[in-house]
Amino acid sequence: MQELQTYYYNQGNAVRKTEVYSAHPVRSLPTRQQREREKREEAIRKQRITDRRRVAALRKNRLLTGYMIVAVILTCTMLVGYVALQTNVSTRMNHVAELENELSKVNADNKAAESRIATTTNLSEIKDKAINDLGMVYATSNQIVYYSVDGSDYMSQYHDIP
Q1: What is the pLDDT of residue 143?
Q2: First and final C-alpha spacing in the chain
Q3: Is residue 3 within 8 Å of 22, Cβ to Cβ?
């Protein structure tokens, strides 16, 4: 080993101590047993680090798996709810369509009944009964009032006109 020595020149009343610095620290070579013990300790230390990392990764995987299960359950619940809503809407639309069909049939029957009643009435019989049985007379010109009628009359044709 090589040692470096430094020398100082004394100036004034403060004297410096001379120190010896070595370029390489002095170490003794480890024995075979020490090297084996250090290898075992290093292997144990690395195994502990690996075990800690494995446990942490397993904990994270369990947590992520739990989150994924919750997300899948929520998604399935929302999808089932959506399908139920769609079914409910389509059922109601079908019910509304049935009610509209029923309403149109009832309206058609009502108009047909009104037309049938209007055509079965014999005006001459009504006139005879009013004049002879009830004693009614024709109105005078000052009793007559004229008015205009909208074009909203209704007629259903059931047969061809000859």
Answers
A1: 85
A2: 140
A3: yes
Distant-in-sequence, close-in-space partners of 114: CB < 8 Å, separation ≥ 6: 154
Query: What is the predicted pLDDT for the residue at 153?
Result: 64
pLDDT at 82: 97
How many residues in total does the chain contain? 162
Token pair listed for 52: 């800690």
Nearest Cα residue to 156 out of 123, 122, 107, 121: 107
Mean pLDDT, contiguous 10-residue spans, the chain (162 residues): 59 60 65 89 93 88 89 96 96 96 95 85 83 88 75 67 60
Q: Which residue from 161, 150, 155 is spatially nearest to 117, judged by alpha carbons?
A: 155
Structure tokens at 120: 């079965």
Structural contact between residues 29 and 23, judged by C-beta atoms closer than 8 angstroms: no
Q: Is residue 125 within 8 Å of residue 86, measured between CB atoms?
A: no
pTM over 0.70: no
Maximum pairwise Cα distance, the chain: 165
| Residue indicated by tokens 């004693």 | 135
Instruction: Give the H or E element holding residue 26.
Output: none
Give the C-alpha separation, 69 to 63, whole Å.
Answer: 10
Amino acid in the structure at residue 66: G
